[in-house]
Amino acid sequence: MTVDQVGSPAELAGLLDRHGYLCDEGLATACFLALRMGRPLFLEGEAGVGKTELAKTLARGLGAPLIRLQCYEGLDASQALYDWDFPRQLLHLRAAEAAGVSDVSRLEGELYDRRFLLARPLLQALETSPSVLLVDELDRADDEFEAFLLEVLSDFTITVPELGTIRAERPPVVVVTSNRTREVHDALKRRCLYHWLEHPSFDREVAIIRRRLPDAAERLAGQVARAAQRMRETDLLKPPGVAESLDWTEALVALGVRDLDPGTAAVTLGAVLKYREDQQRVLGGGGATGLEALLDGG
To answer: Measuring CA to CA, which residue among 13, 10, 62 is closest to residue 207?
Structure first.
């Protein structure tokens, strides 16, 4: 299905559903409007709630390649946009010298030919139609890169001084994610459509687990989802997201578990809680933070 063939948020939700991603009406609407209006979709939320997975599933549903730009501190334009292939340019220069080429102007022009340009994710997305561009964890990048990205997303063009302006034949579908470790500037948010992803409800989380891991018993899926929901209500350094619920369930299925008990939960806790302090708090706590309480009613 192409972008133009998606006629409504319900159709988009159905498309994502067929590829294993369950979304609510709000997210389906925001995503549909981003497609219809040609605007980037800016997703914020806790880690593990499904921001990155939405972009991956959207690419699969639209039959378009996913081009991912993973952000990190120190990321600059050359790493995100393009760079010149200096080793190949040097080889070309040496081959030309060996062949006796003496026309300096011609040789210089050949060195900055398109074949020596290394396309990084942003340029790849502009030159690939259709495509889905995922700018993942933008909050990890520096302010300078954020300003540069705003310029690229404003008109979907890139200027290479030696070659001229490269314009997208059709702008890519853009999904920008942030875990909100810092605030992203308003200028970029205004360019995008915004949606905050909450942790799913209990019923939706059970449905997600059952959809992604059909070998998991229904009772086990409910126990994992209930325990994860209760962990999110406690004072943990890193409450589990849906990704961790899926990891935990997959680990339990691999062990042949169909009914989760406190003992099994204790020895598999590393699949859902990735900080030692959080594990100690859950294992050593009483009342609402004890494993028995987390699994009670499951």
So the answer is: 13
